[in-house]
## 1
Amino acid sequence: MKSFAQNLIQLRRQYNMTQEQLANKLNISSQAVSKWETGQSLPDIIVLPKIADIFRTSIDSLISHSLKHNPSTQYEEFYRSQNYYWGITPNHLCYEILKLKPPIKPWRLLDIGCGEGKDAVFFARNGYQVDAFDITKTGLDKAKKLASFYNVQVNFFQADINSFRPNTQYDIIFSSGVLHYLKPDLKEQIIHNYKHHTAENGLNVFNVFIDKPFLPPAPDEETPHTLWYSGELAALYHDWYFHQFYENIFDCISNNIPHKHCMNTIIAEKVCS
Ligand SMILES: C[S@@+](CC[C@H](N)C(=O)[O-])C[C@H]1O[C@@H](n2cnc3c(N)ncnc32)[C@H](O)[C@@H]1O
């Protein structure tokens, strides 16, 4: 009861929503919301999925103990400086998306783990309708600054990849260098959920870090994370059309220490019969 109340307060604040606004969305009185938040009562079981939907989270996360300890990453610190840790040049995959889904209409795009927003802002500048989330507040603050510098709208919000569930269909779901933060037991379910929330002929464009025994761990690797195996991501998309799938090893100097990463990249299209 206590954890639900704390989770609800945290989510409502995160979404900048008053008790009354939440109550209106649920078609109930604001007193009812107030009672949930003070732990005097719990919502009816039929209302729980609606609350999860509003806050784009799972019912499990709503009632679990973990949400109140907002999980953090080292990036929260890295993003604190004035400079953009990842720069502001968009990822090369953004141009691949532009070629495959040119913005002839405002395609709905989700950027998962958007960091400081370079890619999300690039898409918005090119006419896409962008939702983007990250777990770090410092990253999102800088992302919002970048969007306002370019005078574009992006719906940035704070969320954890492990509890976030889309509540709408997207034409493009994109994520670069983030999916190793998925908990191993949730990976398959969450990828399945992204596929489900992709519109017909929509794209999923992801790159993931790959475990190679001959490569030493990267110096800025943090726990908890789980690298992927070669081909693992491709297997989850066996029923989609692959525009691209490849593996590469590249040099990186994040944290000012030269090291190497291995990645699998996939650009897959949901083709319906
Ligand atoms: C390697 S960075 C990539 C950032 C961005 N996609 C880019 O390419 O510039 C990984 C990002 O994942 C975010 N992240 C880490 N754990 C996360 C989680 N559990 N949920 C959502 N984002 C997370 C970090 O804050 C960081 O911004």
Note: The pocket of S-adenosylmethionine is lined by residues 71, 73, 75, 86, 91, 113-115, 118, 134-136, 139, 160-162, 176-178, 181 (CB under 6 Å).
## 2
Amino acid sequence: MGSIEEPIEVQLPTAAPTFAPTPSLFSLTGRTIAVTGGGRGLGITLAAAVLESGGHCACIDILPSPSELEWTSLLALAKSSNLTVSYHRCDITDETQISATLDLIAETGAKLGAPLAGTIACAGIQQKVPAVEYPVEGFRRIMDVNVTGTFLTIKHSARIFMREGTRGSVVMIASMSGQVANRGLTCTAYNTSKAAVQQMCRSVAQEWGAHGIRVNTLSPGYIRTAMTDALLAAEPEVEKTWMAGALLGRLGTPEDFKAPAIFLLADGSSWMTGADLRVDGGHCASA
Ligand SMILES: NC(=O)c1ccc[n+]([C@@H]2O[C@H](COP(=O)([O-])OP(=O)(O)OC[C@H]3O[C@@H](n4cnc5c(N)ncnc54)[C@H](O)[C@@H]3O)[C@@H](O)[C@H]2O)c1
């Protein structure tokens, strides 16, 4: 095992992979994938997608335990597929915690013969406050979790990939709100944080490409999860505004992001880095 100071030289391919059958381009067999925000919502659904694609999965979340119903079905799925799924309570804004958690996940993966080869940075928080009233602590908290926490997650993932010589893939969950301001929503801190995640992606992609590490963002439109349920419960009329931009006549579900996330993690996207994949039911396509 090399150190970060002396990275293992990665042999970058000089040509496109030849004649890989299409299903193998979406396979995560022999890999471990870490998912932050994996305790509920979008993250836990993407954890199921990892298992369904043949990968071992490690969920990381600040919650004491994951959502019971989904976790029971993840355990059953892992067992029936001869794979493992683990849950790690961790605050992604605490560098010591996230670094140790990812190291543990990588160590366990190596023992299974399935190195840590991908990370989905999905943990995030949202807050709706008019900009002129935004308390500085609230603004800083959004930046701390959505920007700094995401950065620490991908920084320590990349350190592991470099140390182990793994050509890993990082997928950061940004948002269409990184590119457009949501009509009727006073979410300046959140929107700012998601734009930062999209630019972070481009910055680290140009640093880490030489190590064979790919970094992309997946930017969802409106999805029904605990995060948006709380918002819509407080202001039900907001749903009308959202539906007005829904070109396919519905809001998103976490399941809509399974295939896009697996595509970004697996070899099918092997010539894609520093990019944003927007999946928003057409919301940003029309004014
Ligand atoms: N729901 C939407 O409409 C929507 C749209 C665009 C983007 N997103 C993004 O998708 C991601 C998942 O959102 P969701 O809708 O599933 O929300 P969610 O609130 O259900 O899930 C977010 C998860 O992140 C975890 N988390 C928060 N702070 C953490 C921390 N400090 N350390 C570790 N874990 C932490 C939470 O405990 C929670 O389990 C977020 O990044 C969100 O910004 C959501």
Note: The beta strands are 32-36, 56-61, 85-89, 116-121, 169-173, 214-220, 276-279.
